[in-house]
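User: I'm putting together notes for a lab meeting next week and I want to include a structural view of one of the chains we've been expressing. I don't have a solved structure, so I'd like a prediction I can at least talk through. The sequence is below, exactly as it appears in our construct file.
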Amino acid sequence: MLFALGLISLFTGHVASHLEYYSFKFMKGALSSKLNRHPPINIWKSKASKLYYGCSSRDPNFPHAVRGRASNGYLLIATSGGLNQQRTGIIDAVVVARILNATLVVPELDHHSFWKDDSDFVDIFDTEWFINSLAKDVTIIKRVPDKVMRSMDRPPYTMRVPRKSPPEFYLDQVLPTLLRKR
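Assistant: Thanks for the context. Below is the predicted structure for the 182-residue chain, given as structure tokens.
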């Protein structure tokens, strides 16, 4: 009999596979029903919750942007890639605007990439919330004022910045250009 099962399994695959599959599935169900008798744990109400903090909580020592100083100019960014890459670029732009003490213009999303998505920033994000929630840190406007645009004798200066540039790069390379071109 054992020889016959071995010969059959040689030509058809593992004979016990269905038996093992269903017994494992049954055991897994029995184990999970025993494990799921307890309600889900809320980490914020657990005994160790005093050790946790929300990542969006501002550290009390984190300074607000200095509002007494005039802006060093307008920062317009060009996003590219898929929505997630564009979102990451927008986050980076907020940080850069703070480092440079620049006024960030609400970004225009990429309409020419592979995705060919015609959505604008206002179609995807809550623009007012974006501006208001960051108001203590960065000045954000919806568009460059017409008066400023009319006063330009040529289009805004374009500069390509290497990915993952440190803050010093922006202060040493971008800020002088921003101050010259404003």
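A couple of points you could mention at the meeting. The beta strands are 74-75, 103-105, 140-141. The mean pLDDT is 76.

User: Perfect, that's what I needed.
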